[in-house]
Design goal:
With 113 residues, the chain is mainly α. It is built from five helices and three strands. This is NADH dehydrogenase.
């Protein structure tokens, strides 16, 4: 559980990382390339874990669910968050985390701001 406290800021910052021209990836107009070593299975596991956490990651408990269910390292989690934010699949949850904006979570994300 202690690692979860470290992962939330990591995930929040990753979702806000600057893209080309200094704009946040989600707003940059150009999406980031898929991270090396991250395939469809890892992306699907991440999405499923976020759904299981309630479609959002805004606290340590939700982050712990995502981390435990994916088995991804902190670096991989950061890469996945950056990638999905760049794809428009993650939206900011008032500087406290993010909401998955695709699949079954799309409706939750529409009220995230």
């Amino acid at each position: 559980m202690r690692r979860a406290f470290l992962i939330i800021p990591l995930l929040v910052l990753a979702a806000c990382e600057a893209g080309p021209g200094g704009a946040p990836f989600g707003l940059a107009g150009a999406s980031p390339p898929r991270p090396a070593g991250i395939g469809d299975a890892e992306l699907a596991a991440f999405r499923a874990a976020v759904v299981e956490a309630g479609c959002r990651v805004t606290n340590a408990e939700e982050a712990a669910v995502v981390e435990a269910r994916t088995g991804l390292t902190e670096d991989q989690l950061r890469d996945v968050v950056e990638y999905l934010a760049g794809q428009g699949e993650l939206v900011d949850a008032r500087d406290t985390g993010f909401v998955l904006a695709s699949g079954t979570c799309a409706e939750v994300a529409s009220g995230a701001g």
